[in-house]
Amino acid sequence: MTFDKTIAIKFLLLLLFCVFLTGDAEVRCIEGEREALLSFKSGLIDEHGMLSSWQGDECCKWYGVECSNVTGHVIALQLHSNFPAILGGKIASSFLELHHLNHLDLNWNDFGGIRIPEFIGSMKQLQHLDLSWSNFSGSIPPQLGNLTNLYSLNLYGNDFGGIPIPEFIGSMKRLQHLHLGNSHFSGIVPTQLGNLTNLRSLDLSWNYFGGIPIPKFIGSMKQLQQLFLQNSKFSGRIPPQLGNLTDLRSLDLSMNDFGGIRIPEFIGSMKQLQQLSLEGSHFSGIVPPQLWNLTYLRSLDLSENDFGGIPIPEFIGSMKQLQHLSLGSSNFSGTIPPVLGNLTNLQSLGLKRNGFGTVPPQLWNLTNLRLLDLSLNSLCSTSLSLLGFVLESLEILDLSSNHLNGSMPDLRAFPSLTKLHLSNNNFTGPIPVSIGQLSMLQDLDISHNSLEGLVPLSIGQLSKLQVLHLSSNSLEGSVPLSIGQLSKLQDLDLSHNSLEGSVSESHFSKLDNLKSLDLSFNPLIMDIASNWSPPFHLDRLNLAGCNVGPYFPKWLRTQRSLVFLYLNGANIRDEAPKWLGSMSPLLRYLFLADNQISGTIPNLSSTSIEHMDLCQNQFSGPLPLLPPYAAIINLSGNMLSASISSICKTRHHDLQILDLSSNQLAGEVPNCWEKMPTLLYLNLANNNFSGEIPRSLGSLHKISVLQMHGNNLSGELPYNLRLCHDLRLIDVGGNKLTGEIPTWIGQMYNMLILNLRGNKLHGSIPPQICNLTDIQILDLSVNNLSSIIPDCFNNFTLLAIKDFTYGQPFTFVIYFGDTEHREYEYSSFQWKGKETEYRKNLWGIKLIDFSSNRLMGNIPKSFSNMSGLNSLNLSRNSLTGHIIPDIGKMEMLDSLDLSHNQLSGKIPTSLAEIHTLGVLDLSNNNFSGKIPRSTQLQSFNASSYAGNDGLCGDPLPKCTEDSLRTSTTNPVDNMNEKDGSNFSFMQEVGISMAFGFIFGFWGVIGSFILKKSWRIAFFSLFDAAGDWFYVRIAVFVSKWRRSLNAEMQR
């Protein structure tokens, strides 16, 4: 027994000695594993030399390689990128030689969208696998299901193309951390994940789960401490099973759609919570008081919800561990509760967009506050200097979009400020010179106020300034040279002021980091040498409204990173340089409108331009190939000529607005519009196009505006246009179109403007046109339309609305990131007797014009239902009957023209009740009687009533008894009088006829009585004449009926 103990003791001493020697010796790399690492390196792309240390024999000393201190085996590879140093290429299977590798970290690299290698599933010893943010894509190999020893799996930030989360992940039962967020997963969350009962952290955020509820099985993961489900399109009720997660520290349900439910009360039972985010998830109702139990909470975000105007709950003031509180844009009301002043650990407080009017002084107790956001409220005044005295630690202050007025405060009270936003208020007076003492300031935005005076020179002392926005004020004087000393400045916006003088190279001498420059809409003179080489590389330049010309600025050629270029109205009178199209491969927005740039448009077909506006210049020559990715192209108001067939050479998948109007383009309109399937707005007006309107326009199923007026187009409106159900405006006026107005036009239920003016259309007005219930402008004038006007205008619901401001917005708003583009619909028509083009104010006009046709019959009674109509023109037709008696119901009429018809009767007294009437023309009809007495009707010239011989009264000559008696006669008598007859003449004729009758009648009758043979001969002749007269009348009536029926059918 003693012998055995001795041997055991000696063995232990020997073992301890070996361990001591091993620990003291240097761990050496195992050769086979070194070769495996070099093989792995050979397949990688390492442009920045991240693995430059991977040489020599000692691989355990290489960057990112960790070896066992005991065995020397490689046990961990931590190759996450150190930007900009990133790895790419292929992952070699030599990894399989690293049999002891248990930790693999490749995050934040770029493997170019390759699939995750299948062989990784054979590395069964792995405990930690991090492939996040490394640009893997495709399906996830099922072999990863073999990694049953994994404790942590991170696939966050890849693109797996909308596949469901693999079910095999549920077999990795040792997992404690699973991160699948932002990886384009979709479908349902597999129930197999419910097997992962050891999870401490689960991240499914930023995916697309298609409106399914949060899975109930998550409530069985009782060891969870972190649960991230934000922005994954979850909806419905939040399962109460989540109340079992009493060990949670972080819960993020933000940016989902829970359909207006209340915040679940069971969240108050998660007493270990330190971070709770419910931002933007459509919660409503009250904030449950159970949240008062969350005494460990350090961050609470309830912003972007709708709590229905309730006050901010008082119990939030008892959460004294809070460091971050965000309640912005959640429809809280009342006042900011003073109890928030108890949150003395608070570092950030967000209360924007809630309508608060005052700031309670208790907030001055928040001496640790770093961020205060009170923007988009209704603050009228606040003691900013006092806030500054107490909150000296404040770094970010946002009071933008309130009603603050008066002078700007003494900003020296904010010595720690790095960001100050006071934009969109009512501050007046000068910018205080003391602003130069904010030595820590990086972001200053005081735009959109009423500040005046000079830009203070002291701004040049803000050596850390990166953003300076002074736009939309009333600043004057010159741009101070001291701005050129702000070497860290990245964004400078002085636009929309009254700055003047010259801007030279000296203003930019040290602005090496400048990325965005906006001096637009100031009368500045850009006094810059043509050979200037700027120190900066801009991505945004706006000099619109400045005096840049007359020459095109050559220094732009150096700006290879330019994305936005705005030179509208810059007084450039030069040819477009050939290098414009290749100036910047990143160019997306090109605005050169309202200059006098000449020459041909450069070839832009290989660019990535999305929005191009070259309108109102002097470009000439043929239409070039258009940028293939453009969404908006405006080349209107130039001198482009020849055909536009070149648009057929490229398929434009993104084009939404194309404006080629007011050029000299000619030839036929090409028949290839199916290549522009996203087109919303097409304007080819005021050119020299001929031929028929192409049928392929019917393939534009999204088109809303079709402008083709002022050309030489012929033929009929193509039948295929009936497929364009979203059309709001059709303007083909001023062409040579023939045929009848198609009945399918009544199926365009979204139509607001229909202008067929000035063509050669014939036939009748189809009654189907009254199906256009939202019509605001209907112009069928100057055609050959005949027959009667259909009596169905009571269907026009928009024209029945009397509110002059009510109408559809004739505007397109298209967004490109943060940039908004507005395109205004417009149309040309007669207004108050003049041909006028309307654009921005088109929405307020409600007009019907059927003038200069061959319409007949009565004015339909249903016209009186259009009480919101502004202009009615039925002149130069063959209308008969009377003015409708209820015309006074058309209370919004500003212009009424019924001239040159055959209307008769009296002028209705209700016409005098239209107080808005500014233009009236009833001339050249057969009206009679006295003009109704009113201030309105007597204000017009006599020419408004001329050519109506039976009319009298102011402004025409006064009425007499004879004229009034004449007005009561039959309208046929009035017509005879109009032809030259008068009452005295008729008297003379009557007397002569009486004497003639007496002598003639009795002379003939006496002969008949005295002589029988005369009687027989006379009555025989009378019978024959009666028969002849009857036949003639019958034939005439039959012909007249056939003619009338044929006319009505047309």
TrEMBL record:
Q: Which SUPFAM superfamilies match?
A: L domain-like, RNI-like
Q: Indicate the secretion signal residues.
A: 1-25
What's any GO biological process attached to this entry? defense response
Gene3D superfamilies recorded: Ribonuclease Inhibitor
Domain of life of the source? Eukaryota
Q: Where in the cell is it found?
A: Cell membrane
Give the way it sits in the membrane. Single-pass type I membrane protein
The protein's matches in InterPro entries, at most eight in alphabetical order, are given as: Leu-rich_rpt, Leu-rich_rpt_typical-subtyp, LRR_dom_sf, LRR_N_plant-typ, LRR_R13L4/SHOC2-like, RLP23-like
Keyword vocabulary terms for this entry: Cell membrane, Glycoprotein, Leucine-rich repeat, Membrane, Repeat, Signal, Transmembrane, Transmembrane helix
In terms of SMART domains, this protein maps to: LRR_SD22, LRR_TYP
Q: What is its main location?
A: membrane
Residues of the Disease resistance R13L4/SHOC-2-like LRR domain = 96-207, 214-423
User: Which residue ranges traverse the bilayer?
Assistant: 989-1010
Cellular component annotations (GO), alphabetically ordered: plasma membrane
Residue intervals of the Leucine-rich repeat-containing N-terminal plant-type domain? 32-68
Q: Name one Pfam family in it.
A: LRR_8
Keyword Transferase attached? no
Q: Which family does it belong to?
A: Belongs to the RLP family.
Instruction: Identify this protein by name.
Output: Receptor-like protein EIX1
From which source organism is this entry? Answer: Salvia divinorum
